Amino acid sequence: MKTKSFFILTLATTLALPTFAQKNEGKKANKTNETETKSQNGKDNNMMLNAADETSPRFINVGLPEGTGGTVVSENGMLISPDTYLMMPNQAWRQDGSFQKPESWSLSKTAIKMGEVGVSMATNTRKGQKKFVGHLNLHTNSYGLMGGNLSLAGPMKNNWFYHVNAFVNMDPGSTNPSWTNFLDKTFLLKGIVTKRYNNGELSFQYKYMNSQKLNDNVAPYIFHKDKQVTQLDNFEIGRNSYATGTDNHIYKNPLTGEMESVSYIKDTGSEVHAFDILGNNKLGKGLTLDYTLRYQHAETGKTNFSFNAIKETGAATAKSRYIYADNNNEQVYTGYFQNVQMGIAPRRPSDYVNARVELNKKGKNFNYSAGYNGYLWHVNKATQGTYSYLSEVAPNPRQIVHQVYQNGVWVNKQGENTPDQYGQWNYNGAYFYYDGNEYKNTIYAMGDWKPAKNVKIDLGARLEWHHLAGSWMNKEDRASAPDKTWASGGTSEINRNFWNKSFTATVTYNILPTFGLVGDAYYIETSDGLNVYKSANDPLSKTNVIPYLAAGVFYNSPIVSVISRFSRISRSNLYASGSFANAEGESTKLSFLYDIKTVGWTTDAVITPFKGASLHLMLTLQNPVYKNFEFEVFGEKFNYDGVPARTCSKTLIEIDPSYSFGAFRIWASARYFSKASCAYPGTLFFPSRWETFAGIDYQATKKIAFNLSVVNLLNQTGAQGRIVGTNTAMDPTPYYDQPVAGTFIRPFTIDLKTKITF
After folding, report:
1. For residue 701, is pLDDT > 50?
2. Strand pairing of 118-123 and 70-75?
3. If DSSP codes are grouped into helix, strand and coil, which group holds residue 741?
4. Are 213 and 91 contacting, i.e. CB atoms less than 8 angstroms apart?
5. Do residues 665 and 656 touch, judged by C-beta distance below 8 A?
6. In whole angstroms, what separates CA 446 from the centre of its chain?
7. Cβ burial 273-293 (10 Å sphere, 16+ → b, else e)
8. Please, are residues 303 and 343 in contact by the beta-carbon 8 Å criterion?
9. Nearest-CA neighbor of 237 among 699, 751, 744, 752?
């Protein structure tokens, strides 16, 4: 990684800078209109420096909560997955050593080319060259991870070239589940052959990936007012598993109605086959034609937990007790317990066809590109089965059952429900079913123009037709089904059309060679995909409108490069569904639409005081709030207008120093997040936290390099996300100093990576 690689953290600035009046390495600071970031130019970046999950890029703040705007991953110009609920990007993609250095695309470039809201991590496959070259990357950590990749590339005959790459990751994680040795077991094989001719090249690529991955980043802890969470006496955050105590689960198949045994990890995960055609041609006079075509067949599945409030059993009595479900009524349990809704979606097939064609033109004072991007996403009966059970609050938790003594025998009883012999009830009470096709056909254009020496204008436009066609089961379909616990009845048609328009404009004006102004105006439209039909409630889906305005100043000198700007971003018609319960124990699920608006200010600077030293500093102050957020439940109306948006911090700080000397480079990264709401009403907050990293890189020889790094240097819990059961929690006091379940970041971890070139 180059000396000033942390400079690209400017993309975390907030509202993703489409242009950046910072200097590039090797270029003079006083050159006008030096507006592109290193990341936009394909330089190194650290988007994979993720405190929560090593296998995915980190969330980049664009002024919107995660899930409504953030990091997008692409491969060879194509989205990894158009349905991130059914198939997460890391189920079909890994940063496996087969790519060139990744690029970070700005908010504007992502909107025009990808049709998504956020910044992009764009990855492109490395191709074979005239000389043979091999790379061996090895990776381990303090918890016993074993991973790496072997990459071989070189020439064949008649201007044909090859590149093959094998990647394996065997990660036990830090939480020690009792029923598996690895939380991530992934194998990826990729091969590409390339034919080069006078004016271009044509490549054929095949990718196979098999992944079994479990996200085990939820833990019980004690929630406090305005303080860091604390550990329960019997549970170490980040070191104990809160997934389940067993890999084998009994659920009711939503497609057949049959009770089946499934493996928690083996029957989920993913298996992916992808076939790509990639080409580019020089057409003369600065024109190039770039195109990709992909067919992908995948089988993917997932599991998820919905946790309700943690309670205490109290002491066992002659009339009431809690026993372990797997213990034949022989062992009584006392202590904390939690009502859990388990969701299991075994692997289901999907097919994905994506085509992209782009024409590029470079001129003396202008560059432009125009293209077409379209895909077909076919989902074959996507389902998820659900059931409820009680769980002990302990490492590797076992299921428990509440029993009451009636007529001389102990009977399973949980309120109005009667758990079965497995200690479970409410089978498929919240299952989903949808089936069909999702189409997108898009034309777009973008370019930059220098009408004067000190002025640069960037423009983009996108017109997208988004069509949903298929079927789903709504409330009425489920109510009229012969058996309401599975998809035994009729379905309703899905037939939706959206015409989405997006426009972006950026103007950079150098008042002086080193000082200037920059302004942005974006209008972006997006629409929800098929996965919005994953509940029984009418999704009420509408076009999302995202306007973005920003204005600021920049200054470049040999020592300091800085940009400071104000911005405003909003997103309307966001869809959400949530579960609600009242004091009488009644529960229901609602769907609703709402808006988010964020006003912010960001200053981002890179300081290079002397040779080898670099310091990146970033400060963002923002105010993300809900707008038009009203609903009624159990006869009571709620209005969250102006309430702080859940999971969004108002203050963000990044500090990234590095120093290179000889064969060594020492670096660190610290990210500060102020307190963030963890409940819709804005009454409960997780306290501020840091994400910290540090490392040393050593280039031992021209062909051997080592990297030793530390994740979560301060060993913070990083409590974040939301607290269950708080959708209408206007009074926060019942939650203070009480146990809750929430997410956390990776504990203190030492990583060692070795790269050998031959």
Report:
1. yes
2. parallel
3. strand
4. yes
5. no
6. 27
7. ebebebbbbeeeeeebbbbbb
8. yes
9. 744
Question: Biggest alpha carbon distance in the chain?
Answer: 93
Considering only residues 85 and 503, tell me which one the structure prediction assigns the higher pLDDT: 503
- % the chain with pLDDT above 70: 92
Q: Name residues whose C-beta falls within 8 Å of residue 722's C-beta, 6 or more positions apart in sequence.
A: 646, 647, 678, 679, 742
Q: What is the CATH number of the domain that holds 482?
A: 2.40.170.20
What pLDDT is attached to residue 633?
Answer: 83
Q: What integer is the mean pLDDT of 33-39?
A: 37
Mean pLDDT of 412-429: 90
d(CA 100, CA 163): 12
Residue 727 clears pLDDT 90, i.e. is over it? no
Tokens of 659: 């120093």
Question: 676 vs 514, 578, 625, 679, 721, CA distance in Å?
Answer: 38, 20, 12, 9, 9
The Cα angle at residue 693 between residues 610 and 141, in degrees rounded to 5: 125
What's the pLDDT score for residue 90? 93
Give the model's confidence band at 34: pLDDT under 50 very low, under 70 low, under 90 confident, else very high. very low
Query: What is the length of the chain?
Result: 758
Q: What pLDDT does 8 receive?
A: 30
Backbone φ/ψ region at 63: left (φ over 0), alpha (ψ -120 to 50), beta: left
- Pair 78, 374: CB distance under 8 Å: no
Return the amino acid letter for 437.
N
pTM listed for this prediction = 0.90
The structural domain count of the chain equals 1
Cα Rg of the chain, angstroms: 27
pLDDT category of residue 110 using cuts at 50, 70 and 90 = very high
Give me the phi and psi of 35, to 5 degrees please: -110, -10
- The reported pLDDT for the residue numbered 107 is 93
Question: Three-state SS for 518?
Answer: strand
Residue 95 has pLDDT above 80, yes or no: yes
Residues of the domain holding 733: 5-230+237-757
Looking at per-residue confidence, does 45 or 29 come out higher? 45
Binning pLDDT at 50, 70 and 90, where does residue 315 land? very high
> Pairing mode, if any, of strands 320-324 and 230-231?
unpaired
Beta strands in 172-269 (DSSP E): 184-197, 200-213, 218-223, 230-231, 248-252, 259-263
Backbone angle region of 231, left / alpha / beta, with phi > 0 → left and psi within -120 to 50 → alpha = beta
Residue 53's SS3 state is: coil
C-alpha distance from residue 517 to each of 9, 23, 547, 599 (Å):
21, 15, 20, 19
Measure CA of the first residue to CA of the last residue in the chain; give whole Å: 19
Identify the CA nearest to 742 among candidates 68, 231, 398, 58: 231
